[in-house]
Amino acid sequence: xxxxxxxxxxxxxxxxxxxxxxxxxxxxxxxxxxxxxxxxxxxxxxxxxxxxxxxxxxxxxxxxxxxxxxxxxxxxxxxxxxxxxxxxxxxxxxxxxxxxxxxxxxxxxxxxxxxxxxxxxxxxxxxxxxxxxxxxxxxxxxxxxxxxxxxxxxxxxxxxxxxxxxxxxxxxxxxxxxxxxxxxxxxxxxxxxxxxxxxxxxxxxxxxxxxxxxxxxxxxxxxxxxxxxxxxxxxxxxxxxxxxxxxxxxxxxxxxxxxxxxxxxxxxxxxxxxxxxxxxxxxxxxxxxxxxxxxxxxxxxxxxxxxxxxxxxxxxxxxxxxxxxxxxxxxxxxxxxxxxxxxxxxxxxxxxxxxxxxxxxxxxxxxxxxxxxxxxxxxxxxxxxxxxxxxxxxxxxx
Length: 398
Prior knowledge:
Blueprint: H1 2-23, H2 26-39, H3 43-68, H4 72-79, H5 83-114, H6 118-134, H7 138-164, H8 168-176, H9 183-194, H10 198-208, H11 217-246, H12 257-298, H13 302-306, H14 308-326, H15 330-354, H16 358-361, H17 369-396
């Protein structure tokens, strides 16, 4: 019995790190640097509020999917026939395009670390990710990989905080008494942390490990909060590290804000540290995006279910092939980002409806009303953001 409990705890921590490291990608690093430069210490408030919102979203999704024992696409299909297929297609398209960016980020990380050219750096990073899914116990390998690299990132960013000596007192004050509140920034952070496929990475992992049902509800809830807290700690530490640079009045390089912050803050050592963090963030995002995107297709297509590990490997190979031949397709990335904004309101709405469908959720579970109300508020906000983003892109491209 003790061995089983330890196994469950290990899977839940692994699922939390999978979700967290899926969120902490190249875009996460750039986003944090840009907003820190823009809002300075007031960005602390935005981070904390976004963490609270992220917890609401994650608890709703992890609890409902965990109790039902069904993945998001299956729940969506039961709520409204065909919705699961629509959701799976959105996730697969968005996941593939973003994975091209993740592969590119990993290649750039190796370029910063050791000067390796982008194409071979992309291939090497892809091979590392593929090796996990060639393992017979791919789930355990993925859990360990994301845990180790997640801890490495946290330690290195913490080192940079010590190195840049940010005004911690001011940051803590602004956390609770902000001099400026930017709600658009907060919603952008939410989209980057639990938008698209990201919020389902950990939830689908616990379902794969059969940690489901009302009996596991407390563990599932704790895992969902842990996932968001890992991401939040990383965001706050990264914010502090960059704040220590921007408060001096030094301008960050707009072409690569986080890299320039690390270079200014700690010289060449800082630049190399950024390379390691970028590679860790990107390659774990490759793993998370590939695993989660295919998990949305598994139960809908029997051919994929039977050979899902090889489909994940194929997903990584296609992403890498596109990057090495085309580079980062900016138009595709921008458009996928807009489509990505539609995934959370559609999926969260379907999951919230499922919470009150006894055929899906069973007789022994009652979803907390406070989570339901707050969840629907997030559906409205994220739908508005997604629609605004998509219409803006449609105008941009004619």
